[in-house]
């Protein structure tokens, strides 16, 4: 007799519906979308290597396992309940059973536009800034309740179990420290109860301790250290081999982090990469990987820092940027705008006596151009300053895009339109600007760094992004 598992695949409603089998690769399974459910009830399955993609029109889940061995039966459901699908499998772990319950709870929350929780909820996400506020809220509740992460113990500091805590790569060290803290509620006591396993290797520290002072940009040593780590844990434990890394993740904010897989892409093809450098033209897959927000933690920490948030009517600068000219986009930005315009204030170095945070706090729009890599700490700083972020980048996958609808609170300007910044921003009606500004202030909580982490803050949002990817993967 086969065990019987009801897996509900609730929330992968897409903005763009595709129904052809060949379209499966292009699905974005992690979006908690807002569109109405399509009426079609046909469930397809589609194989690509050891992955099985299950989907109805517009709904997709990925399952990892040997489909021939496990014997899949994907069946058609009645019209009206198409978003349930039944899978018979030889074995179903407790971990998978828990995830199935979480999926069911999320589906129910979306259906009833409410939530269920064992504890008092201090924050209830609502409004158009969320793609699906009910799905997101319940998913966050389920994460806090269930999500367990095993961090491998192998390896020594400072390259492993430690990372940069200050400056622009800080999120890397802060995340590692948080997740390795004895107090973290997400810590698995045993790898067998974990939903995901973490490789706590710090690319930031490898660069700092192995490459500095810099004499070579060759990535060989970086690649070797990371790959050796995977070899060690995959020899010692059964977990990596079981899924070829599909329930494993690494996390880094360093520009070089995407390069770890360059020598052996096969080894890394399933690994969830949580990266600041989320460049979709460089192997970052939004449906497998996670975009990590870049935050610049000042030397004294955030506690010593003053924030200046002026009300919209006091914001006298139309657009603001101050920073170096690294990368093509910034070179062009500085070329066109540096120290040329009162309303669009673009500086390489701030004039004496001017305060960066204060200027952000009295600007309507803050320019966030890509530098050497796609991400910029200015995106998060905009939220701290109540300034509407203007994203100027190619192929940048914005953080938390699964749940946040960035169109509601940011402006996107294509790099080739940089000469038109002033015209574009002036063309946005005041009423529209006010709405966006309000939303930016409201969303600040999702970008605040707390230690220990708190519900819905930046570390919880990163964890939630990882949780969503695991939720969309069934391991058999
Ligand atoms: C899957 O299982 C079948 C039957 O046991 C086996 O022949 C096949 O080689 C397996 N495929 C993979 C990719 O492990
Ligand atoms: C995992 O696979 C590798 C490569 O096939 C093998 O060398 C290693 O022994 C396996 N690990 C375990 C724990 O069986
Ligand atoms: C806004 O500007 C006015 C006039 O300059 C000033 O009196 C007021 O204190 C400012 N508001 C804030 C919150 O700083
Ligand atoms: C993103 O990747 C593409 C393709 O490699 C590259 O041309 C581009 O410069 C990258 N963007 C940034 C900002 O590094």
Automatic annotation (TrEMBL):
Signal peptide residue numbers: 1-19
Cross-referenced InterPro entries: Exostosin (IPR004263), Exostosin_GT47 (IPR040911)
Domain Exostosin GT47: 130-426
Statement: the UniProt record of this protein carries the keyword Iron: no
Topology term for the membrane: Single-pass type II membrane protein
Alphabetic keyword roster: Glycosyltransferase, Golgi apparatus, Signal, Signal-anchor, Transferase, Transmembrane
Compartments, as annotated in UniProt: Golgi apparatus membrane
Keyword match Glycosyltransferase: yes
Superkingdom assignment: Eukaryota
Pfam families: Exostosin_GT47
Record family assignment: Belongs to the glycosyltransferase 47 family.
Name of this chain's protein: Exostosin GT47 domain-containing protein
